[in-house]
């Protein structure tokens, strides 16, 4: 695991691969079809992005997919012959947070590659309300689903809205465009999208900077939900409190749908048998790696080859939704 962590810390590109791989960890783990008891952190992202037109909700993590296609085979030939994509996706997401100044979280090994396709349409969209986000995490086993929504949305300390599924003004669908519920434009998630700290909560609460750009982010400070708003306030003033909660919740997220028996671990086992994981080196400015100090570092939308037109049925769940939400958003986080 340490080999993998160190190799990732040398090869992640700050502006693009790094935040994209945190998002990939979320997508791979959270794509769980509760009704069918299927999916979770199982490497299915690799198949889904080999067939991107059937699974457009994952287009946004195409950068990490390309990275993993090289990284995992490389690591297998360099001393980690049994490395699964499922473990690598979660570990590299963890390394990304660490390199950006976040906590070093011990993410346990043992995830198996399913070689399958999960249902990517189960992911929440950018117009989700707090109730919808909490419902989503509750379905995935979190005992405190509102808190899970607040803590895990903290992933938006990093990265960019890339508008991967381009906004369609006529239908109001897609990322990064004005719709009845979701407004804005592509760009960095926060004023400091290269730093993992509690800036996101600060911007969210004060409505300054970029956080709160997605409706699903703003939903955390819904006046009617005091618990969520109080947590936002707590994290904005107390980075360590956020880091502690992030450590617990991201461990749990990384194990969604994973059978703990073969892996012989529990969610809160803490450090690996080998002891504390140690930190990978923080990101340092180097020419070409996309690092631009603490400033905004948006490098543009991902260029993904796509079919001339994604039909609404392929590209969205719009057809299955109703009311105001249907008018506003298309696809998943
Ligand atoms: C659960 C509700 C969530 C929603 C609705 C959501 C939505 C989104 C959207 C719309 C984008 C921009 C996509 C694009 O323009 O291509 C995005 C990016 C991102 N999300 Fe989320 N997200 C959610 C949860 C999470 C979680 C739990 C994490 C991590 C733990 C996360 C990490 C990220 C990161 C790092 C990016 C930036 C990626 C990049 O720069 O390439 N998100 N999310």
From TrEMBL:
The keyword Cytoplasm does not apply. Pfam families: peroxidase. Signal peptide: none annotated. Keywords: Heme, Iron, Metal-binding, Oxidoreductase, Peroxidase. Residues 83-279 form the Plant heme peroxidase family profile domain. InterPro entries: Ccp1-like, Haem_peroxidase, Haem_peroxidase_sf. Transmembrane segments: none annotated. Belongs to the peroxidase family. This is Plant heme peroxidase family profile domain-containing protein.
């Amino acid at each position: 695991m340490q080999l993998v962590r160190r190799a990732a810390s040398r090869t992640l590109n700050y502006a693009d691969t790094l935040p994209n791989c945190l998002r990939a960890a979320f997508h791979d783990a959270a794509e769980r079809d509760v009704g069918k008891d299927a999916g979770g952190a199982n490497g299915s992202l690799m198949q889904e992005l080999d067939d991107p037109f059937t699974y457009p909700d994952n287009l946004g993590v195409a950068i990490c997919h390309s990275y993993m296609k090289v990284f995992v085979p490389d690591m297998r030939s360099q001393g980690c012959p049994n490395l699964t994509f499922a473990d690598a996706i979660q570990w590299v997401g963890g390394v990304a947070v660490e390199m950006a100044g976040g906590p070093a979280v011990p993410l346990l090994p043992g995830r198996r590659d399913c070689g399958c396709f999960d249902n990517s349409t189960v992911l929440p969209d950018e117009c989700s309300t707090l109730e919808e986000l909490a419902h989503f995490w509750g379905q995935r086993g979190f005992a405190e689903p509102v808190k899970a929504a607040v803590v895990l949305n903290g992933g938006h300390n990093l990265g960019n809205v890339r508008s991967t599924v381009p906004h369609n003004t006529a239908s109001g669908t897609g990322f990064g465009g004005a719709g009845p519920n979701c407004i804005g434009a592509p760009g960095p998630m926060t004023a400091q999208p290269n730093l993992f700290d509690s800036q996101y909560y600060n911007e969210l609460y004060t409505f300054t900077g970029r956080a709160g750009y997605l409706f699903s982010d703003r939903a955390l400070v819904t006046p009617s939900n005091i618990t969520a708003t109080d947590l936002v306030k707590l994290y904005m003033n107390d980075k360590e409190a956020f880091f502690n909660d992030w450590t617990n919740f991201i461990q749990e997220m990384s194990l969604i749908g994973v059978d703990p028996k073969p892996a012989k671990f529990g969610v809160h086992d803490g450090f690996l048998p080998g002891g504390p994981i140690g930190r990978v080196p923080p990101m340092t400015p180097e020419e070409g790696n996309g690092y631009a100090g603490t400033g905004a570092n948006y490098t543009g939308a991902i260029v993904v080859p796509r079919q001339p037109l994604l039909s609404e049925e392929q590209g969205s769940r719009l057809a299955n939704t109703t009311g105001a939400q249907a008018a506003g958003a298309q696809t998943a986080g």
